[in-house]
Design brief:
Mean pLDDT: 90
Distance between the termini: 74 Å
Shape: rod-shaped
Strand content: under 5%
Structural class: mainly alpha
Number of strands: 0
Radius of gyration: 37 Å
Order of helices and strands: HH
Helix content: over 70%
Number of domains: 1
Largest sheet: none
Length: 141
């Protein structure tokens, strides 16, 4: 037979008091801490995604500039070759010699300018990567 006495009531009061205190002192702060942590993580992830999208946009811009520079170099080279061909038709022997010199000079200049542009773009890409890494990591690299 079940015997209900004062100890059961005291144990019930003790249990309810313990639940109240644990809820106030442990469970609520823990849940709040986990919610804050989750919000920070989501914020940082969104920031990282935005930085990655920005880096991709910059990379696409740089690639477009490289294509434009190559197109301009090709156009300049084509123009010089066209002029050299016209000259060669006028004075065959002299034009052949001058055209070879002109083409060699332009190719060297184009190579030099292309290499300078590549070096400048590499430096900018490295700086961009460092800035993106610093932004993602939240500290300087």
């Amino acid at each position: 037979m079940i015997n209900i006495n004062v100890t059961l009531v005291l144990q019930l009061i003790n249990f309810l008091l313990l639940m109240f205190l644990l809820n106030r002192l442990l469970f609520r702060p823990l849940v709040r801490l986990l919610d804050e942590r989750s919000a920070r993580t989501e914020g940082r992830q969104a920031e990282a995604e935005r930085a990655e999208a920005e880096a991709e946009a910059m990379l696409a811009d740089y690639e477009g500039k490289i294509r434009d520079a190559r197109g301009a170099a090709d156009a300049a080279r084509s123009e010089v070759l066209r002029k050299a061909d016209t000259e060669r038709q006028g004075v065959l022997a002299q034009a052949t010699e001058e055209a070879a010199k002109t083409v060699a000079e332009i190719r060297a200049r184009v190579r030099g300018e292309t290499e300078q542009a590549r070096q400048a773009l590499r430096i900018q890409a490295d700086q961009l990567a460092a800035a993106a890494a610093a932004r993602i990591l939240g500290r300087t690299v």
